[in-house]
Amino acid sequence: RPKNFPPGPPLVPVLGNLLEMTVGSPLEDFERLRKTYGNVYSLFFGSRPAVIVNGIKAVREALVTNAKDFAGRPQGLLVADLSENEGVILADYGPRWKDHRRFALTNLRNFGMGKSAMEEKIHQEIKFIIDTMDENIGKTMSPESMIYLATSNIVCRVLFNARYNQNDDFINVIIKGYSENAKILNGLSSTVSQSMFLRSQFGHIVLQNLYGAHKKTRVPGQPRDFIDSYLDEMEKDTEKDSTFSEDQMCTFVLDLHFAGTDTTSNTMLTLFLYLTSKPQMQERCQEEIDRVLEGKDQASFEDRHQMHYMQAMIHEVQRVANIVPLNVFHATVVDTELMGYSIPKGTLVIPNMKSVLSEEGQWKYPHEFNPENFLNEQGEFVKPEAFMPFSTGIRMCLGEGLARMELFLIPVMLLRKFKLIWPEDAGEPDYTQIFGGTMSPQPYRIKVQPRSTQ
Ligand code: HEM
C-alpha cells in the first residue's frame, strides 16, 4: 500500500485481496471489513487498489466536500473500456461528461421532469398497467414484465416520443439484457460478450429506426424529444472539439434508458413485494390515498405532501432495497485526501451505500423494515440526511425527479383501485435480494382483486 493509504487486509501476491471477497455477494464482506479496518479502508483487486468508503461522514467528505476530486469514473475496467468513455454514466470527469450531463438535465426538464407534463406521461402509462391488472383479476401474476414495460415506456416517451408493446423487439432484446448488464456495469463479473451484444443491438435500433426516422421528420429548433434535441445540438455545435456526435448519442441514450428503467423498476417491484406481503401497511396506505384523493380522478405529485405514510413507505423501501448498493464506482481525478488518508489520482473509489442507508445512529430502526424511520412523532414525513439512494454530490443521479414521480404516482393509482394479495400457496415472502450493480428482489407473484370501496 502507498504511504498513508487507507488500511486493509494483508495482500496475497497476484490476487491482492480477491480471496477476501465472496463471489456474487460481496456486501457482507464489505461490512465485515469495515468493522475491522474502519470507515475508510482499501482492497486490492489483483494489483488494482480500491478505496471503500463507508458511513455518512466519509461518503459526504468524498462526494460533497471534495466533490470534484472524487468525480471521476475508473478507467481500464472492462465495461468502461467497451463504452470508450462515451455516454454519461461511465464517462470520466471532463468536458464530454459535463456537456452531456448538462444536456440531459436541461432536456429532462424541458420534456417535463418535475412538471405536470411528465405526470401526464406517467398517467398514460398507468392506464396500461391498470388494463393488465384488470385482465388478471382473481388470478396470480408476476408483476415484473408489466413494471419493466411501464418504466421503460416512460423513459422512451421522453427520449424517443414513443412507447412499445410487450411483443416489440425493442423490449425483448433490450430489457431482458438489462438484468445481465446490471450485474456487469461496475465490472464486477465479466459477461462482456453479453454487454457488447446489448450495446450493438441497442445501437442498431437507435441508429436504424429512431435516428433515421427522426432525421426525416424533425423540424430543426422544434424538438419533440431527446433525439431531436440532440440533433439540434449537433448542428449548433459544429466546432472541431464538440463533444456531441452520432456514436456518442447512442451510448448516451442507452445510458439514460438503462439508468431510468432498471433502477426504477427494481425499486417498484420491491415496493409491491412489501405492500403485498404486509397487508396492514397496504391498508394504511389505502386509507390515506382514499382520504386525500376523494372526488379526484387521478393523483398529482403534489398530493404527496398530504400522504405522509405513503411517502414513508416508499422511502423505507428505497432504504432497505438499497438498489445501487455500491453506487456507480467513482475515481479520484487528482491526488487528494479522505478522512486524513492520502488517495492518489486515478484510485478506484467505492462508496458503500448500504453503510449509510442502515448506519447505526442515523436511523430509528437501522436493521428492520419500518416506515417509522421516515415519520416524526406527529406522524409527519421527514427525510433523514442519511437517505441517499440517489447518491450525493456532483455526480448524483440526474433522474431523481422522474424516478420520485413514478415511485409515487404508480403505486398510489394502483392501490386506489386494487387490493394486492400474497397468494395462499406462495409460502413465506423472501425479502433477500439478488446482488448486482442493481439489486433486484426475488421473483414473486401477486393476486389482484378490485377494491370493494371503488
Ligand atoms: C429509483 C431510481 C433510481 C435510483 C435509485 C438511481 C440511483 C443512481 C445512483 C446511485 C447513481 C450514481 C451516482 C454517483 O455516481 O454518485 C445514478 C446515476 C445516474 N442516474 Fe440514476 N437512479 C434512479 C433513476 C434514474 C432515472 C429515472 C434516470 C434517468 C432517466 C437516471 C439517470 C442517471 C444517470 C444518467 C446517472 C449518471 C450520472 C453521472 O454519472 O453524472 N437514474 N443513479
Automatic annotation (TrEMBL):
GO cellular component: cytoplasm; membrane
Cellular localization per UniProt: Membrane
Gene3D superfamilies reported for this sequence: Cytochrome P450
Molecular function via GO: heme binding; iron ion binding; oxidoreductase activity, acting on paired donors, with incorporation or reduction of molecular oxygen, reduced flavin or flavoprotein as one donor, and incorporation of one atom of oxygen
Superkingdom to which the source organism belongs: Eukaryota
TM regions (residue ranges): none
Pfam families reported in the protein's UniProt record: p450
Presence of keyword Iron: yes
Keywords per UniProt: Heme, Iron, Membrane, Metal-binding, Monooxygenase, Oxidoreductase, Signal
Coiled-coil region: none
Cofactor or coenzyme needed: heme
Binding-site list for heme: C397
PROSITE patterns noted in UniProt: CYTOCHROME_P450
PANTHER family with a match to the protein in the record: CYTOCHROME P450 2F2-RELATED, CYTOCHROME P450 508A4-RELATED
The protein's name in its UniProt record: Uncharacterized protein
Species this protein is from: Dicentrarchus labrax (European seabass)
